[in-house]
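User: I'm putting together notes for a lab meeting next week and I want to include a structural view of one of the chains we've been expressing. I don't have a solved structure, so I'd like a prediction I can at least talk through. The sequence is below, exactly as it appears in our construct file.
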Amino acid sequence: MGIRELFKNIQVPWGKEASVLGVDIGTSSIKIVQLRKEKERAILQTYGELAIGPYSKLKIGQATKVSEEVIVEALKDILKEANAKAKTVVVSIPLASSFITVINLPSSVEGDISEVIKIEARRYIPIPLSEVALDWWVIPDDKEKKIIQILLAAIHRDTINIYKNIISRAGLKAKAYEIECFSMIRSCLGRETSPVAVLDFGASTTKLAIIDYGIMKVTHSISHGSQELTLALSRSLNIDFSRAEEMKREIGLSDLPEHKEVVSILEPVLEYIFAEADRFIKDFQKKSNRSVGKLILSGGGSLLKGLIDFSVKKFTLEVEMADPFAKVEYPVFLSNTIKGVGVNFSIATGLALREL
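Assistant: Thanks for the context. Below is the predicted structure for the 356-residue chain, given as structure tokens.
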């Protein structure tokens, strides 16, 4: 398959309805999902993933920071390989390049809330508001309170301009830019009213978001991802990255005696990530007096064998794998394939669903 970790093109007749492309540019790969709306249904037309590592003479699965020129080249390549025809795209913005917080306002300001939010935002955002794209939402509450909670989100305009340039040079037209956590929530969650935690296990970082009453309340980024597992195997067993990546995927957290050594290397890395995530969840529960009852695993790293059982033991919560294509229609013969790789496309699918 060359530099492609995954590619699948679905031949679906083109209808009159406009198609939209979700573009998720990560640190180890670019993922795209193209959907078409037909009679209030989202139809999957094509999807694909392209590893970025080989463009920098690195291995598939390795996270890397590359130039805009390389991203443009890789994006053009995956569009061609996946036979993606849509020109209208929605693009993800990394959580690390964003700012999200919840602010409290007295209920008495509700009539003039927009101006008050701009004033309050200056207290939280360390740069001039003229340099950021600012958005906000009122968080609904089921109790009588004397405050209004506002979810505040900001992206530096320089970051947006970088993505605008990439998308334009790839011959596409951006309809919107969205912080990746919002896209992930759109594709992975249903109509839950009790608090739910979503853990996005990426290559270089692990992102955690807690959603309550359907609104994202808090986010947290952990500076370790699934690549750390591969590097730990590579160092401990003195093997190259590619072989370590294969062992991680093939063995994972196997309970077979012959795999004990591999598991003993992987577990400390997972312990670190999950311990930090657990502290964050418990801190939310303490501050909000709301109990998180479910954890949803997303991202390519969550495909690690045995991770659900490991997660249940560490969090003592109900744990399930994200199913971002649950809101999308696709051919039945693709069911097993989608089930095997779907979590890797949570963000890209959520981006495309935004405009349907």
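A couple of points you could mention at the meeting. The radius of gyration is 21 Å. The chain is about 35% helix and 30% strand.

User: Perfect, that's what I needed.
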